[in-house]
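REVIEWER CHECKLIST
Item 1: Sequence provided? yes
Item 2: Single chain? yes
Item 3: Sequence as submitted:
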Amino acid sequence: MGFYPIIISLLEAMFIDFLNNNIYDPKSEFLIPTVVNDLIQQKMEEVHILKTDSKWFGVTFKEDKPLVKNQIADLVESGTYPSILF
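Item 4: Structure as written out by the authors:
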């Protein structure tokens, strides 16, 4: 399970504000862990952590894309991840 819909709505509003405030800074980043931590510190939200043995991977640089594509393909092939998400 991920974020509840209400959190997604809140993050969306915060992201729009972020875009408006950083329109001339193409290197600015909207870091979800930082934003969620801010919400926790402001006592606006509470977060529960779920334990998982799943491997995390992400795309930070364009050079990361081929590796991540291969990892996702492996998950699809093993039946761990659906080939069509939506």
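Item 5: Key structural point noted by reviewer: Residues 52-86 form one domain.
Item 6: Recommendation: ____
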